[in-house]
Structures are given as structure tokens and as C-alpha cells.
Design goal:
Blueprint lengths: L6 H6 L5 E13 L3 E5 L7 E4 L7 H6 L5 E10 L7 E12 L15 H6 L8 H23 L3 E2 L5 E2 L11 E2 L26 E3 L4 H11 L1 E9 L12 E10 L3 H22 L1 H15 L12 H10 L3 E4 H10 L1 H4 L16 H12 L3 E7 L15 E9 L3 E8 L4 H10 L8 H8 L5 E7 H9 L20
Parallel strand pairs: 3-5, 6-10, 12-13
Antiparallel strand pairs: 1-2, 1-4, 2-3, 4-5, 7-9, 8-9, 10-11, 11-16, 13-14, 14-15, 15-16
Helix pairs in contact: 4-6, 4-7, 4-14, 6-8
The structure holds 4-amino-1,4-dioxobutan-2-aminium adenosine-5'-monophosphate and magnesium ion (MG).
């Protein structure tokens, strides 16, 4: 038997009149003769035409939506419309049946909510096939981008003893018996008796360790899972998400913004160039979905136009202070239409404000810089004004914050002051402070939320639909 050929390869050439074997899952079976077969290599199905006279009845009976089959035969120019080539099957083997009475994925439209409940099977739908092929390419393009620029991929620890963001949203890691944990004299849990002889948690960010790498290797990046125990039940938050964190030595905030903008454009363009079919499908899906919405809520651009627009235009750069002025003067603020009305400089921006700036005011991606020090992390470089830090957030249409980064505080004395202001004990961070004691230098980096980028590129509305098995408050299925 000929070795198996993937459907993408067969449909990708004009070739016909040759023998091949395809394997995949039946999407539909029409007139007891026409199988639409998918093997996940492309959004397109391949038509396999059964030779009814020479295929036993018991084989035909087992062919139904969801069944796994192997088909061998001649690839020929298609008689019917809809496809260029099809297979005239000489032999069909049903590898795994799917009882139509029980198989949950029938050829009809299922809601995303329903599919989330059967996430173990949702890969088999057109929508999720497209999403996860694109998710793969986004990851690949990210590695390619950094590799081409000489960045070193650094694996930072998943289990750590530190809270990089200082936000206290950590999942604890312990092997202690929760019912009978050892206690110290003060009655508190004695973590010296725990597995690592100290309290540990799942990492919220690989940044601090990436900084250590950058101050020797110059340009590094991490790309791994991060965990946040924030009780955010939104369509933009996950408890387990993947983050890309580059860190560059001898670089300032402008270099940082340039790198982030280049990276985002490169990856989006990579998807446009390599996933035309998948994006076309998702674009149609979105158009159908938006027809349910009132006219003023529908997007003005199609999915691919929106992606192209991002690649072709400079992101709007402005300071937090300038953004606050725009927001204070804005209609929704004056008319108290925002849930959180901006009263004065210093206010933390909510996603409604971010989205106003991006979607209504500038109508393009925005980079906000120089935030008040109180609303940003301890490691960000203090500006001359003593009030703001060298931070930057990139805000995307429909998403809000997609990137958060900064130039780092490289001056030992200033960094210590900042840590004191945030109540971060110095003795726990000696390793971090050592980089400032020995050969410190200007450096900068950022964190890109991987799922938020996939969300943007696929045009999906909920972050739970762009990661195979989402973790969020109340849910850790599969
Ligand atoms: O802004 P954040 O918290 O920044 C950091 O963690 C820094 N240490 C990054 C750095 O400078 N190296 O997170 C960075 C990005 C956000 O902009 C957002 O895209 C994403 O990570 N993110 C989340 N994505 C999904 N679910 C969550 N709960 C997220 N929290 C942050
Ligand atoms: Mg942030």
C-alpha cells in the first residue's frame, strides 16, 4: 500500500491521475457515495468517491460523520463542481467508527459554549482546526523572528519563590499535607519543612530571570506558561496563559517599543501569508456572527483587512499624561458613560478607556508610555520627574492591552528605594540586585500575551477559545 498523503499536499498541487492513500475523519457522507474527508492538515475537505459496486455493504454502513477511515485509489480531476480533484476510491477501510446516535459533533452549527464543554472533540470542527493551526504558526513565527535577530531562547523556571509582578496573584506549590501542615512556634505553616524548604508558587512571569540572562547574553526571550490566580472571569483573562518575554541589554524604551511593534507586525504578516484559507474561513464566520449584532457594533473592516491595517500602519505612540487629557475631554467621560469615570491624572486605565483610545479616538494600535509609578511594577525605570516610570503598554482593537513592558531600573540605589516603597524584602531579591551591583547597564523588555495575540489574529471573541484546554476560575477540565 502506498504511504499516506496529507490532504493539504493533494489539494496543493494541480497533479492528477496518480494512486494515493488518504487517512482522516469523515465530515459528511452524502448519497452513500461522497465522503468529505478531513485530516486536519487544511481547512479544506477532500472528496472521496466510493465505488458502490465494489464496496461491501457492511463497510458503507460504518461510514458516518466522525469515523476514521483510510481510502486508497486514484486522484482524478473532479467531475462535479466545488473541487479540482477528488479520489475514486478502490478500497476503503473503516479504522474507527463513530456511532451517529452518540457522536456529539453532527454536521450542523454548534455554539462555541457547547463546544467548550466538549473541548476534547472541538479540534474536529472547522473553526477550531483553523484556530489551532494558526496558534501553531504564531508560535513558530515568534521563534523565527527572535532566532533571525540573534536572540537566545531562555527557559525560565515554572516553580519559583518570587512574585515577579508583586501583585500577589500566585498559585501556591506545596507537597505539605493541607490538613496537617507542620507549624512553627508562631503557629504559622512551617514552609522550611516543605519540598523546597521554602514557600513556592507557579511563576507569574519569567521576566526577572530573563533580565539575569540578558545581562550576559545581550538579547534573550522566554516563551512559556505563566499562571495568575486573579479572579477575573472575563473574555481576556486566563489563569494559565503563555507569555513571550524578550529582554535586551543596552536598550531603552524606544528600542523596546520598536522591537514589540516589529514582532507583532512580523507575526501577523506571517499568518496572512501562510494561513489564507484558515483566515478566509474565520473571516466568513465573523461576518455571519456580526450579522446578529446591531449595525453600530459591527466592525467596519473584515478580519484580514484589520490584520493588514495593523501591519501597514505605525502604531500611535503617546504618553499616559497625553492619554488622560484625551480621556478627560472625551464624550463618554463628560457624559459619564464610562463605568469608571476618569477624574484626574493618576487614575488606572480600565479596558473601556483603552478601547476608547484605540477603537474610537485613534482607530489604530496605540502604545502608551510613562505611566504614574504607583500603578506600575517596582522594576520599571524612574523618570526624571520622580512621578512616572518608563513603562509602555500596547493596546489593540478589540483586545485592549496585548503587551506590557518597560525600561528596567538599572540603578542599584533607585531600585532599592522602589522595592522598599513596594514592601519587597531585599534579602529575598539579592540575586536580582546582584545584576545591578556587577556590570549593570541600561536594559528593557516586555511581555506579550500569546493568547491575546491569537485572539486578535483569529478574530475570536473569547480567550477560552484560542487555547486547547482553558483554565479559569471554577474550571480545570481535561
Ligand atoms: O502586563 P503584564 O502583567 O507584564 C508582565 O508580566 C511583565 N513581567 C512583562 C515583562 O515586562 N517582561 O503581562 C504581560 C502581558 C499582558 O499585556 C497581557 O497580554 C498578558 O500578558 N496577560 C494575560 N493574558 C491572559 N490572561 C491573563 N490573566 C493575563 N495577564 C496578562
Ligand atoms: Mg500589564
Amino acid at each position: 500500500m502506498a504511504s499516506r498523503t496529507k490532504i493539504k499536499e493533494i489539494l496543493g498541487t494541480e497533479k492528477s491521475d496518480y494512486e494515493a492513500t488518504v487517512k482522516g475523519w469523515v465530515r459528511t457522507f452524502r448519497n452513500n457515495q461522497f465522503i468529505a474527508l478531513s485530516d486536519g492538515s487544511t481547512i479544506k475537505t477532500f472528496q472521496v468517491v466510493i465505488d458502490r459496486d465494489n464496496t461491501p455493504e457492511e463497510v458503507i454502513k460504518k461510514i458516518s460523520t466522525g469515523a476514521a477511515i483510510s481510502a486508497t485509489g486514484k486522484v482524478v480531476t473532479s467531475q462535479g463542481g466545488g473541487q479540482k480533484v477528488e479520489m475514486q476510491a478502490e478500497s476503503i477501510v473503516v479504522l474507527g467508527v463513530a456511532d451517529p446516535e452518540k457522536y456529539p459533533l453532527q454536521p450542523k452549527k454548534h455554539s462555541l459554549e457547547f463546544l467548550r464543554e466538549i473541548a476534547h472533540l472541538r479540534f474536529r470542527t472547522n473553526t477550531f482546526g483553523a484556530i489551532f493551526r494558526i496558534r501553531h504558526s504564531v508560535a513558530f513565527a515568534i521563534h523565527k523572528f527572535f532566532n533571525d535577530r540573534g536572540f537566545v531562547y531562555l527557559h525560565t523556571p515554572i516553580i519559583t519563590g518570587s512574585d515577579a509582578e508583586g501583585a500577589g496573584e500566585m498559585f501556591q506549590v506545596t507537597t505539605l499535607d493541607l490538613k496537617e501542615s507542620p507549624r512553627g512556634e508562631d503557629g504559622e505553616v512551617d514552609f522550611k519543612k516543605d519540598f523546597f524548604n521554602k514557600a513556592t508558587n507557579l511563576t507569574v512571569s519569567g521576566q526577572l530571570e530573563a533580565e539575569l540572562g540578558a545581562l550576559a547574553l545581550s538579547d534573550v526571550y522566554t516563551f512559556g506558561p505563566t499562571f495568575r490566580a486573579e479572579n477575573s472571569n472575563t473574555s481576556r483573562h486566563l489563569a494559565e496563559f503563555w507569555m513571550i518575554e524578550p529582554e535586551m541589554a543596552f536598550a531603552d524604551l524606544n528600542d523596546d517599543m520598536d522591537l514589540a511593534e516589529d514582532l507583532l507586525k512580523y507575526v501577523i504578516n506571517y499568518c496572512l501569508e501562510n494561513h489564507g484559507d484558515d483566515l478566509e474561513f474565520l473571516e466568513e464566520r465573523l461576518i455571519t456572527e456580526e450579522k446578529q449584532k446591531p449595525q453600530n457594533e459591527r466592525s467596519e473592516m473584515t478580519l484580514r483587512d484589520k490584520l493588514k491595517f495593523c501591519v501597514d500602519n505605525d502604531f500611535q505612540r503617546l504618553t499616559y499624561t497625553e492619554a488622560i487629557e484625551i480621556l478627560l475631554r472625551s464624550k463618554p467621560n463628560k457624559k459619564k458613560k464610562f463605568q469608571y469615570v476618569i477624574e484626574e491624572w493618576g487614575a488606572d486605565l480600565q479596558s473601556e478607556h483603552e478601547r476608547f483610545l484605540v477603537e474610537k479616538h485613534f482607530k489604530k494600535p496605540v502604545i502608551l508610555t510613562d505611566y504614574p509609578k504607583e500603578i506600575k511594577a517596582f522594576y520599571m525605570r524612574m523618570n526624571e520627574d520622580g512621578k512616572t516610570v518608563r513603562a509602555m503598554d500596547i493596546l489593540f482593537p478589540g483586545i485592549g492591552e496585548i503587551v506590557g513592558g518597560s525600561q528596567r531600573e538599572e540603578r542599584l540605589d533607585v531600585l532599592k528605594e522602589r522595592m522598599a516603597a513596594f514592601d519587597i524584602p531585599e534579602h529575598e531579591m539579592e540575586w536580582f540586585l546582584d545584576t545591578r551591583r556587577f556590570g549593570t547597564c541600561e536594559h528593557a523588555g516586555f511581555g506579550l500575551g500569546f493568547e491575546r495575540l491569537v485572539l486578535f489574529i483569529t478574530g475570536m471573541g473569547n480567550i477560552r477559545d484560542v487555547i486547547p484546554f482553558p483554565r479559569y476560575p471554577g474550571s480545570a477540565e481535561f
